[in-house]
Write a structure and sequence with these properties.
This protein has 472 residues and is an alpha/beta fold. The protein is built from 15 helices and 13 strands. The strands form three sheets. Strands 1-2-3-4-5-7-10-11 form an eight-stranded parallel barrel, surrounded by six helices. Helix 14 links the parallel strand 10 and strand 11. Helix 8 packs antiparallel against helix 9 and helix 14 runs parallel beside helix 15. The radius of gyration is 21 Å and the shape is globular. The model has no long low-confidence stretch (mean pLDDT 97). Keywords: Carbohydrate metabolism, Cellulose degradation, Glycosidase, Hydrolase, Polysaccharide degradation.
């Protein structure tokens, strides 16, 4: 392993205009409700699966949770001023389902909706466009108790919640994302058990995939119909976490390993959403394990409700082999090997390889295979920040990461990819899921003891780069 130090992956980079990015390119920052809001039991909010998961011993670093997080619920106006000061035109945030619809059923909670109405008001007053994500992993615990995403009914409950949110905000919010990273919700939550709700059953996870996408389609249908009926502007999308799956060699085994990884990680979501069909090779692979997608008549037509934009969350590209280091081609269960090949590349504090050129490759591939406009809805890096004696954070490693990936976006545009925006992850340090507060992705530092926010050097570089690019 080559876990990079801040000194090893850092260059002195001055802010300058990014060639190839037009004046109307969208610049933003992104957050998620459970990671920043806090106020976990205030104003009618009920527990989500993450509130429950954080209480399971050993599942989150130091047993930490999002009860307070960045206290954004109480500090929202201050945070919006901070966002506006960065010069971004867009703020991507998620709505907390258990805050808007406690328990996941029934009428909307007026106090919960009021918070998001005030947030939109503040953004409008500062000239920042709201970009709403309906679901960023905080399923109401009552719905998990009733079966969670492996249960078909959860898709209908999601559509009902989406309707409540859209009815309240649709006249003032144009940009709507249904789901954030359904692969994580399904696979990490139900197959691998490393995120909430912590189940470990591949069959349940694959059922969750379908019901997440069905919920996306049902919500999309409703918003499309209502936008047309009310004369609302609507830009509708879904956000997927995507990378590249490259075979280590040109062997058949490695090519098959990359195919499986790409199929389960990307095409299982992209194909039904964009093309109205699940990839046949992956359906066959799952059938060989006795697993079927629970598709009912009409589902795929709903799932493939037309989209306006594809949100892309990118963190790394990956090299795959179909052979173990010992030379085996099947695992202990007799299934083909799909092994991640570790490379001697710079890494973030998450131990993720840094592969900006893979972002270019991904965006060009998405343009060729799917033809949807894209926006980078998340990209960023955790590094081990050091606060200097004068309180500044000289995070040249993060600045380098951002610069390299924004350049990769410009390269993709030069190759014909219709990429329309870039949102840095994250606005500020926050609750990083199973890692608790141990990993810092923010371009703004949060002192969790005092809740003081401090611009890191990366935030200043991002602000200045946006200004110079817009005015080039």
């Amino acid at each position: 392993m080559n876990l990079v130090t801040p000194q090893a992956y850092a260059r002195e980079i001055a802010a300058q205009a990014v060639p190839g990015l037009p004046a109307d390119f969208r610049w933003g920052v992104a957050t998620a409700a459970y990671q920043i809001e806090g106020a976990a039991a205030e104003d009618g909010r009920t527990p989500s699966i993450w509130d429950t998961y954080c209480r399971v011993p050993g599942m989150v670093v130091r047993g930490e949770n999002g009860d307070v997080a960045c206290d954004h619920y109480h500090r929202m106006p201050e945070d919006v001023s901070l966002i506006a000061g960065l010069g971004v035109d867009t703020y991507r945030f998620s709505l907390a389902w258990p805050r808007i619809q406690p328990g996941g059923r029934g009428p909307a909670n007026a106090k919960g909706l009021d918070f998001y109405k005030r947030l939109v008001d503040e953004l409008d007053a500062k000239g920042v466009t709201p970009w709403v994500t309906l679901y960023h992993w905080d399923l109401p615990q009552e719905l998990e108790d009733a079966g969670g995403w492996p249960a078909r009914d959860t898709a209908y409950r999601f559509a009902e919640y989406a309707a409540l949110a859209y009815d309240a905000l649709g006249d003032r919010v144009k940009h709507w994302t249904t789901l954030n990273e359904p692969w994580c919700s399904a696979m990490l939550g139900y197959a691998y058990g490393t995120q909430a709700p912590g189940r470990k059953n591949l069959g349940e996870a694959i059922h969750a995939v379908h019901h997440l996408l069905l919920g996306h389609g049902l919500a999309s249908q409703y918003m499309r119909e209502q936008a047309a009926a009310r004369g609302n502007d609507l830009e509708l999308g879904i956000t997927l976490n995507l990378g590249t799956a490259t075979p280590e060699t040109d062997s058949h085994e490695d090519a098959e390993a990359a195919r499986r990884a790409d199929g389960l990680g990307a095409r299982l979501y992209l194909d039904p959403v964009v093309k109205g069909a699940y990839p046949e090779d992956i359906v066959a692979d799952l059938a060989a394990q006795g697993i079927e997608l629970p598709v009912q008549d009409g589902d795929l037509a709903v799932i493939s409700t037309p989209l306006d934009v594809l949100g892309v969350n990118f963190y790394r590209g990956t090299l795959f082999s179909g052979v173990t280091e010992d030379g085996a081609t099947t695992d202990t269960e007799g299934l083909p090997v799909t092994r991640v090949v570790e490379r001697e590349l710079p890494r973030t504090a998450m131990d993720w390889e840094i592969t900006p050129s893979a972002l270019t490759d991904l965006l060009v591939r998405l343009e060729k295979d799917y033809g949807l406009p894209t926006v980078i809805t998340e990209n960023g890096a955790a590094f081990d920040d050091t606060v200097s004696a004068n309180g500044e954070i000289h995070d040249a490693d993060r600045t380098t990461y951002l610069a390299d990936h924004i350049a990769a976006v410009a390269d993709a545009r030069a190759q014909g990819a219709d990429v329309r925006g870039y949102f840095a992850w994250s606005l500020m340090d926050n609750f990083e899921w199973s890692y608790g507060y141990d990993k810092r992705f923010g371009i703004v530092r949060v002192d969790y003891d005092t809740q003081v926010r401090t611009l890191k050097d990366s935030a200043k570089w991002y602000r200045d780069t946006i200004h110079l690019t817009r005015n080039a």
